[in-house]
Amino acid sequence: MSATLKVDLGARSYPIHIGAGLLDDAALLPGLVKSGQVVIITNTIVGPLYLERVTRHFADRQCHVFELPDGEGAKSFANFERALGFMLERRIERGATIVALGGGVVGDLAGFVAACYQRGIGFVQVPTTLLAQVDSSVGGKTAINHALGKNMVGAFHQPTAVVADITTLDTLPPREFSAGLAEVVKYGLIRDYAFLEWLEAHLDALVAREPAALTEAILRSCENKAEVVAGDEFETGARATLNLGHTFGHAIETALGYGAWLHGEAVAAGTCMAAAMSARLGWLDADAVARIERLLGRAGLPLRPPAGLGPAQFMDVMARDKKNVGGHIRLVLLRALGEAVVTRDYPPEALAATLAAATTAA
Amino acid sequence: MSATLKVDLGARSYPIHIGAGLLDDAALLPGLVKSGQVVIITNTIVGPLYLERVTRHFADRQCHVFELPDGEGAKSFANFERALGFMLERRIERGATIVALGGGVVGDLAGFVAACYQRGIGFVQVPTTLLAQVDSSVGGKTAINHALGKNMVGAFHQPTAVVADITTLDTLPPREFSAGLAEVVKYGLIRDYAFLEWLEAHLDALVAREPAALTEAILRSCENKAEVVAGDEFETGARATLNLGHTFGHAIETALGYGAWLHGEAVAAGTCMAAAMSARLGWLDADAVARIERLLGRAGLPLRPPAGLGPAQFMDVMARDKKNVGGHIRLVLLRALGEAVVTRDYPPEALAATLAAATTAA
Question: Which CATH architecture has domain B174-361?
């Protein structure tokens, strides 16, 4: 089973190919990468596993490999500058293509390098984690981190194609796989109730990494994200709903230091906090909150922030979040299961109470 | 006399205001900057001269000033990172506006910071050099330099407005003023023969910095550039004609090290080389070449590359130029006065002979 989805962005439209064994397709990658110069950006974990399966398609091209260290820390200014210098030293031209082979960290940094190298060159995403396949390879967001905040420096730069080979998920550690499921569940929660029900029925198959279930879940996640992004490429409106759980989640990641919790783990706990706050505002009932927690729990995800994190730390980091406008903390909440709202219009006490409850429960 | 020009780029359209005393207009800058947070990026030369005239308009806003060192060296990775850190420390939000107060270096760096800060925020250009007023504030190109090449890292990011107050040119050193004229002459050469004739008639008034002549020259330069850019925002075609003299010029700047020659000086010598090569191909006659050299000479500009630079150095740097596609060196040449062509289709001997003649003449 394999599927192709077209992300419709006018002149910047591109295809997402999803399926088992796509890296071994003798026509796919060579056809998507049209340039004579290819720069593969990967990392020290993914490179040894999949690099050879990618480079053999470019034996007749000028192909260079730039390897990043593993982990969120790789999304640094230093590596950004290093990658650009690597390309300049090799006289990579404007018509060249970057291939991002790895998870979200590799994709975010490689995409930002592609966005800035000579003011923008093409890049193809080859995401090798569930999180990257369902989320960071769709939407054109690229970024690096700063000590004062995650993804604070970046660009909107669409890939020319995405190749999501689900066989690369076979080597994914269980924690990382679960973290990806947090974003899958998100699409059901924010805009696709039918998909939420499908997930409740198929979560065990997903956790067992059954190919048909995986392909379906990735396809439906990408479809949902693509529809949102197509309607709001530069994140001025509806796209913000994709940040369900992310404002709370970023606070967890920032307060703990990047890498202590995986992004998806922080999003899962943040999603539970958003659900709790939605219930506090009368939008979700206790049963709906329980369904969310049950699904995330079955996916092996944390439902509460880590112990030791207090409301003040949340407020401090959230006030710095780039989604804020005019000093108010913008939140993505659930009006119902399958319907998200973006709002700054809530009683401050509701947020305070939500933070207090979540952090004492931990 | 003042003028306003609209650069037509659909959703990214913006106005260019040109005239004497615009910095003192109590309504203009405050109206163009709509945000509560303002970050003025300037440098140690321009700041002391004009900062107060800008900041007083934002007395009721949260206004921060980030000062760069003077010179092309300021367009560095280090300053890029430092400016972003400065803004993050002050919790500058996504709705904020950057005001770039200075010449092309300040505008290029400030624009790239605006392009990347939280994936893009608004910025207003307040160019204070002739070069920046006619050239770098129109077109959306932003960039920083790398040891291996100028403007090698950057983004296309349009300003929300440009305010060109010609009284700021009063403090401009003669060499810098002349350098700006090189780009003014360029517009006549590449696409506006009537403007070329106007320049031949009014160059003395321009050199004397007469306000009416300045406003007219800047307006017509911006109109020409805006028309080219509107038709080719991302530099895939006609926009390349704006690089007349730049391929040779960049080679001069890179070989000498940034700052030894001003950009406009290198462009002037490069334009003479492009003219000589055009003559060699039979497109310009000796009289046309002489008119170009006479005009640039009256503007106080160099007509030859610096002594000591040989053909091999030119070839080495030009082969690295980011405008190359497929290994051939792309050149902007003149089919006639007022008509530029972009071509890779020329006898390599013609380029070799042009380089040899220009470098032995020096």
Answer: Up-down Bundle (1.20)
Place of tokens 């913008």: A330
**Residues of B designated catalytic:** 119, 141, 183, 225, 235, 239, 243, 246, 250, 263
Instruction: Cite the DSSP H helix spans in A90-173.
Output: 104-116, 130-131
Please state the ipTM of this predicted complex. Answer: 0.86
Find the closest chain B residue to A89 by CA distance.
Answer: B148
Q: CB B324 to CB A93 under 8 A? A: yes
Could you tell me if A122 and A83 are in contact, meaning their C-beta atoms sit under 8 angstroms apart?
no
Interface of A with B (CB under 8 A): 36, 77, 81, 84-85, 88-89, 91, 93-95, 115-120, 141-143, 146-149, 151-156, 234-235, 319-320, 322-327
Q: Chain A contacts of B233, Cβ < 8 Å?
A: none
Could you tell me which chain A residue has the CA closest to the CA of B156? A119
CA distances (Å), origin B182, targets A60, B193, B278, B303: 44, 16, 18, 11
Domain positions in chain A are 2-170, 174-361
Structure tokens at B211: 């306000």
pTM, two decimals, is: 0.87
Count of CA atoms in the C-beta half-sphere (13 A) of A58: 25
Which has the higher per-residue pLDDT, B214 or A2? Answer: B214
Min Cα separation A340/chain B (Å): 22
- Active site annotation includes A235: yes
Report the CATH fold assignment for B2-170. Answer: Rossmann fold (3.40.50)
Report d(CA B203, CA B51) in Å as an integer: 31
| Separation of CA B290 from chain center | 25
Give the pLDDT confidence of B32-72 residue by residue, as tens digits.
Answer: 999 999 999 999 999 999 999 999 999 999 999 999 999 88
Phi, psi of B12 (to 5 degrees): -105, 20
How many C-beta atoms lie closer than 10 Å to residue A338's C-beta?
17
Distance CA B12, CA B28 (A): 19
Taking CB atoms and an 8 Å limit, are B148 and A85 in contact across chains? yes
- Give the model's confidence band at A139: pLDDT under 50 very low, under 70 low, under 90 confident, else very high: confident
Report pLDDT digits (tens) over A337-353: 999 999 998 999 999 99
Q: Please, are residues A199 and A187 in contact by the beta-carbon 8 Å criterion?
A: no
pLDDT (average), residues B317-342: 82
Count of pairs with CB atoms under 8 A, one residue in A, one in B: 99
Q: What is the spatial distance between Cα A116 and Cα A123, in angstroms, rounded to a whole number?
A: 12
CA A143 to chain centre: 12
Distance from CA of B22 to the nearest CA of A (A): 29
Instruction: Check: CB of residue B97 under 8 Å from CB of residue B70.
Output: no
Q: Could you read off the pLDDT of A8-62 as tens digits, one per residue?
A: 888 889 999 999 999 999 999 999 999 999 999 999 999 999 999 999 999 999 9
